[in-house]
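Structure tokens please, single chain.
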Amino acid sequence: MKKPINQQERRDFLKATAMLAGGAMLSSIPLAGAYASGSDTIKIALIGCGDRGTGAAFQALSTKFNIKLVAMADAFQDRLDSSYQSLSSKFGAKMDVPKERQFVGFDAYLKAIPLADVVLLTTPPGFRPIHFEEAVKQNKQIFMEKPVAVDAPGIRKVLAAAEEAKKKKLNVVVGLQRRYQTNYLESMKRINDGAIGDIMSGQVYWNSGGVWVRPRKANQTEMEYQMRNWYYFNWLCGDHIVEQHVHNIDIANWIKNGHPVSVQGTGSRAWRTGKDYGEIYDNHSIELTYADGAIIHSQCRHFEGISNRVDESFQGTKGKIYLSGSNQAIMKDYSGKELYNHNTKGNANPYQTEHDELFDAVSKGEYRFSNVDYAATSTFSAIIGRYATYSGQTIKWDEALASDISLMPERFAWDANPRLMPDEKGLYPIAMPGQAKVI
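Here you go.
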């Protein structure tokens, strides 16, 4: 267990991470590897052509730099075609992706990555460790979406590749965009300066109505069905506590300068109970316990017709703060005196800022970004939350990280079966607290 940190140590760390998230930490270090040849065109490859991948490519191509999309890869032809059409309608001059550089299938990433200086890794998160490892191996600058894995073996693979990326001075930006968002950065500066003292408790939320369902079609193999409905299967998604709620858990870790040493909680399938919803839960409520004894409550749920809530609140020894992705930040002391109220108008789009700063570094040949450590830590914090709710047990960080239980299929092919298969009624096994083996 880590020893409790004192206030000054926490302030020093937060100052450093605020600089890193803003892109100032490593700016004096020359860039190695890709895009060191002096060409004024930055070539990018899109690995994963779904909505978020198309959005990431849109943001990359919207930067002020001389960028061309030269390769695209996806498991499905129709997803690639749709993405290509959307991007071409907006960025025709920046699109240089002829048919021979449009790759489809499980191995498509192996063909696209070598063609680019910068790769955008935006497939469902189960594939992230594999794709990140390959991109680092091929010396590419990287943007990858959150979360970065779905199980402990995947996290270990990501952390190992991250160490290689640091040695090679490869910029890696991860799509936890709150780290690039003005209200969070400004708030962290004030917390770093001790405005509300030591953080002793908090509450983080992602409560919403859920996401899409794609009905099973005739003649689909089980692999294709699960790939099309990736959100409902843990080997692809990690459950919504991982895929979505990781944003809010990441803020808890950022504010606490570390990760939870243990997690306990509860969850279930209360609203999404049919066979269309795979294996994941629709609600999780957990407690994250940190090394200094602070406990942060985390809640996420997908119920239709509910009141939505996506935000974070924290209580320190001298005051409290409320934060949200809609640019709000309100800090008060316990007498009610307002210490800070962030101006929500005119703030930059953090999704765009991530790409602006990454491509600025690449264009200047500078090594600035190594986001993987905090992204992997927050991803694994969310994974442990799933372990806790599925098992009903208190899960300790070190024990969970050592787990060898992998969710990934033994073979990637359309005729291969995932590890989780439906019964004769089309229903999938659901984790039962008290019975499920998670680590």
